[in-house]
Design a protein that fits this description.
This protein has ten helices and seven strands. It is of the alpha+beta class. It folds into two domains: about 80 residues, Arc Repressor Mutant, subunit A (Orthogonal Bundle), CATH 1.10.10; about 130 residues, Muramoyl-pentapeptide Carboxypeptidase, domain 2 (2-Layer Sandwich), CATH 3.30.1380. It has a four-stranded antiparallel sheet with strand order 4-5-7-6. It has a three-stranded antiparallel sheet with strand order 1-3-2. The two termini are about 30 Å apart.
Length: about 240
């Protein structure tokens, strides 16, 4: 299962781009049109200078909210067919942002994939979910940037922070101050917390030199998982 994600910074930037009133009007106009929109059409609709419309439309493209195609509006080809127009339409990108950070899309992908696999194979849905979550946890390790192998603990904390867990040191332990699956965990605690544990075990398995182990340790206002030095977890068994 391939995990694809983008940073909070990128999502905030995309949403912030719509805070400018003219840009928001242009975005709403383009996405509601059945056909791609040209700069001239957008400028005329809102009585804007063409350069102003072009600036805002291209900013929306830069943020990944719109995409561009090129075509001749005359329908003709060859010499005398006219210039190719730059046209704007809604992009395939989806932007979601929540504060505190929530990752219900990740939980949904895991749950749906596990259910589909279980129906196909007859395996236990819980077992399949745990396996998929562990696999995605390993993939999350690849999203860490920089850091030498000897600094895998820092890389793990970087990944956890980027995905909304809010890791904080607590002595030799690491507590996760936020649960990205909060509402689901409140409603289906055993299922979601087990999934979360498998996810984090996968991350730590991929970054083996963290010398950390994940265990369930529910605490009000925190994620249900706590990270402890591996030796401590071994002694606890």
């Amino acid at each position: 299962m391939v995990f694809v994600d983008e940073s909070v910074t990128a999502r905030v930037s995309a949403i912030a781009a719509l805070d400018e009133p003219t840009r928001r009007q242009l975005y709403d106009y383009v996405v509601r049109r059945p056909e791609p929109v040209s700069r001239d059409e957008a400028a005329a609709t809102f009585d804007l200078p063409r350069t102003t419309a072009a600036f805002h439309l291209d900013r929306l493209v830069d943020e990944g909210l719109l995409e561009v195609t090129y075509q001749r509006r005359t329908g003709r080809t060859g010499p005398g067919a006219g210039r190719t127009a730059k046209l704007y339409h809604r992009s395939a990108r989806q932007v979601e942002l929540s504060l505190p950070e929530r990752r219900y899309d990740l939980a949904a992908r895991l749950l749906v994939a596990a259910l589909a696999e279980a129906e196909r194979t007859g395996d236990s849905p819980r077992a399949v979910l745990d396996r998929y979550a562990h696999e995605v946890g390993r993939e999350l390790a690849d999203t860490a940037t920089g850091g030498a192998p000897r600094d895998e603990r820092s890389r793990a904390l970087q990944v956890l922070d980027a995905h909304g867990f809010e890791p904080r040191p607590d002595g030799t332990d690491v507590v996760l101050a936020n649960c990205p699956f909060h509402t689901l965990a409140q409603q289906h605690t055993e299922l979601i917390c087990a999934m979360n544990l498998s996810l984090l075990n996968g991350l730590l398995a991929a970054l083996a030199r963290t010398e950390l182990s994940a265990r369930l340790a529910p605490q009000p206002g925190h994620c249900c998982v706590r990270l402890q030095p591996s030796s401590h977890s071994i002694n606890q068994r």
